[in-house]
Amino acid sequence: MTTSASVPTGPQGATADRGTVTDRLVEANERYAAAFTDPGMDARPVLQVAVVACMDARLDLHAALGLELGDCHTIRNAGGVVTDDVIRSLTISQRKLGTRSVVLIHHTGCGLETLTEDFRTELELEIGQRPAWAVESFQDVDQDVRQSMQRVRTSPFLLHTDDVRGFVFDVKSGLLREVDPA
C-alpha cells in the first residue's frame, strides 16, 4: 500500500522535489477545488450522528463506518477521549445542528496507553510552564471508552444521551468491537 507518507521528506518536512508537506497539501487542494462542485448541503449531518474518535492517522473513519460526506459530525483528538472541548463540540452539534446519536471510537495500540500525566511535568521542565490540560492517558482502552460514555451520558449540556455507544477499533483487522457500558 502506498500512502502520501511514503514520499521522502528532508529537513523540517520538506519533500525532495515539491517544498514542504504543507505546500503539497495546498497544491492538492488546488487540484481538488478545480473539480469541486458545491454539494448543496448544510452543516446538519444527514444521519444525525456525531462520531468522537482518536486522531490516529490509521483510522479512516468514513471508510470504516461506510459514511459519505455530510453524514456525520466527526470530532477527533488524542485518544478520542471526552474532554470539556469534546462536550462543547457535542453540545453545539446537538443543540444547533440536530445530532441525536453519539458514537465513541477508541482503538488498539493507542499512543495514550504509553503516556502518563508525567508528560505534563516533562513539558513544564522543558518549557517552564505546566499545561492547563490533562493528558487523559489510560492503560485499559475498554475502561476509557466506558468513562467517555459516562461523561457524555451525564453532561448537563447535552440533550440526547440515550443513544451513546462506545467501540474499540482494531487497527490490524479494521473491525469495531462494542464496549459494554456496565
Main traits of this protein?
31% helix, two-stranded antiparallel sheet, 5-stranded mixed sheet, alpha/beta, 182 residues
Description:
The protein starts with 13 loop residues before the first strand and ends with a strand. The model has no long low-confidence stretch (mean pLDDT 92). Strand 1 and strand 2 form a beta hairpin. It is an alpha/beta fold and 182 residues long. 31% of the residues lie in helices and 18% in strands. The chain has helices spanning 21-34, 61-65, 84-97, 118-127, 141-153, and strands spanning 14-15, 19-20, 49-54, 72-77, 101-107, 164-169, 176-179. The protein is built from 5 helices and 7 strands. A 5-stranded mixed beta sheet has the order 4-3-5-6-7, covered by helices on one side.
Entry summary:
The chain is an alpha/beta fold and 182 residues long.
Compile the SSE list and pairings.
Layout lengths: L13 E2 L3 E2 H14 L14 E6 L6 H5 L6 E6 L6 H14 L3 E7 L10 H10 L13 H13 L10 E6 L6 E4 L3
Parallel strand pairs: 3-4, 3-5, 5-6
Antiparallel strand pairs: 1-2, 6-7
What fraction strand? 15-25%
Mean pLDDT: 92
Helix coverage percent: 25-40%
Task: Categorize the overall geometry.
Answer: globular
Work out the helix count: 5
End-to-end separation in angstroms reads 39 Å
| Secondary structure tally: strands | 7
Main beta sheet: strand number and arrangement? 5 strands, mixed
Low-confidence stretches: none
Strand order within the widest beta sheet = 4-3-5-6-7
What is the radius of gyration?
Answer: 19 Å
Order of helices and strands: EEHEHEHEHHEE
